[in-house]
């Protein structure tokens, strides 16, 4: 690295090295976590690396560059070789992982930004279809490797690879795709005030999950469904995604380690495949509810804004201004607060319309409003009333 790097133009600074280092670190950590969940010796019970890599590249497309793909390759190899893997086997398995990630990324890239961020009700369907195609690609490549390297049948190998990649993508992608920026997240956590009611849905889910594990049997995974739906209705999409991922990861690890009583042996192919598929479909329900609820809330906010604000100036409508003013006065009466009201009349406004046209009159109104708004505090109210003779009054 040149010693005078700080003197480089901003556009020429090697930020690509930072991106590559970030990808390497993230994939390495995710791969090591997955390797630690290998009770069966061949495939991990949870393999988050593919989903994490794909999600970050979807969200930050500047990461989908050659140096970042190379960094991901090195991270996969490093994680496997650190834990005793053979070079030839590791290369083939890594190729299967990267093939599925590449297919999923390129399919997601063609979606609208709102669908990539899971803001539309049909976004969850698009995500599921793309994850299914990417998992199938990984399954085809991985099953061939498993057949040649380990003597596993093609069908069995495909089932393991496909279901593992599918369920991990379904539960991990939403968390990264819907996560707020680091600054927003820190501000939210810093200003958060603890309230018991906020934690009740998550606590109920934890209790239902624990009870399901203790009772055991195939139905153990369905018992927490009402609590998951409650979380989807109580929390925003990102929080719901985090809660859903935590539940699914706990369930997958508990299944692989035999922690759930009365459950058939986890080394049975049909049982493992069935549980993973069931977990993937189960995760879709709270995600779909949260997405629909979020879209509904956004629509209601837009409608409320339209009702409460003037379309031309963006100020409060007469009705909204009076209602909010009355609420402020009622609240301030108990605290003996002092309020001031100012009414401004734009003189000779009709002459502007007559001489220069209504478009110019609209321009004057908007800029007058901007000038007034810039002089107000954050909790001040500004409303506009346009009279029939086109003489506006700002209050």
From TrEMBL:
Gene3D superfamilies: 3.30.70.270. It catalyses: 2 GTP = 3',3'-c-di-GMP + 2 diphosphate. GO terms for molecular function: diguanylate cyclase activity. The keyword Thylakoid does not apply. SMART domains: GGDEF. CDD domains: GGDEF. This is diguanylate cyclase.
């Amino acid at each position: 690295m040149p010693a005078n790097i700080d003197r480089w133009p901003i556009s020429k600074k090697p930020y690509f090295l930072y991106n590559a280092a970030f990808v390497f670190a993230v994939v390495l950590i995710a791969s090591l976590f997955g390797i630690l969940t290998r009770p069966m010796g061949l495939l991990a019970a949870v393999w988050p690396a593919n989903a994490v890599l794909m999600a970050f590249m979807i969200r930050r497309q500047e990461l989908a560059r050659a140096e970042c793909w190379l960094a991901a390759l090195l991270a996969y190899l490093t994680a496997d070789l650190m834990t005793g893997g053979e070079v030839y086997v590791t290369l083939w398995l890594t190729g299967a992982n990267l093939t599925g990630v590449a297919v999923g990324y390129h399919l997601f890239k063609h979606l609208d930004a709102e669908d990539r961020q899971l803001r539309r009700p049909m976004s969850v369907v698009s995500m599921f279809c793309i994850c299914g195609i990417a998992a199938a690609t990984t399954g085809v490549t991985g099953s061939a490797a498993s057949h040649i390297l380990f003597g596993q049948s093609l069908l069995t190998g495909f089932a393991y690879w496909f279901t593992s990649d599918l369920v991990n993508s379904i539960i991990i992608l939403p968390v990264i795709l819907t996560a707020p920026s680091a600054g927003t997240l820190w501000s939210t956590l810093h200003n958060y005030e603890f309230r018991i009611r906020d934690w009740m849905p998550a606590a109920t889910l934890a209790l239902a999950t624990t009870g399901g594990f203790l009772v055991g049997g195939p139905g153990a995974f369905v018992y927490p469904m009402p609590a998951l739906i409650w979380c989807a209705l109580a929390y925003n999409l990102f929080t719901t995604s985090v809660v859903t991922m935590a539940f699914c990861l706990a369930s997958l690890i508990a299944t692989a380690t035999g922690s759930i009583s009365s459950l058939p042996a986890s080394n049975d192919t049909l049982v493992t495949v069935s549980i993973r598929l069931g977990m993937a479909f189960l995760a879709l329900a709270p995600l779909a509810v949260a997405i629909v609820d979020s879209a509904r809330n956004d629509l209601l906010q837009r409608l409320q804004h339209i009702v409460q604000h003037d379309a031309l100036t963006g100020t409060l409508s007469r009705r909204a201004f009076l209602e909010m003013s009355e609420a402020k006065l009622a609240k301030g009466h108990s605290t003996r607060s002092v309020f001031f009201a100012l009414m401004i009349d734009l003189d000779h406004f009709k002459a502007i319309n007559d001489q220069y046209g209504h478009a110019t009159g609209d321009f004057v109104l908007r800029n007058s409003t901007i000038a007034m708004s810039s002089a107000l505090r954050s909790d001040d109210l500004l409303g506009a009333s346009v009279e029939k003779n086109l003489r506006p009054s700002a209050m």
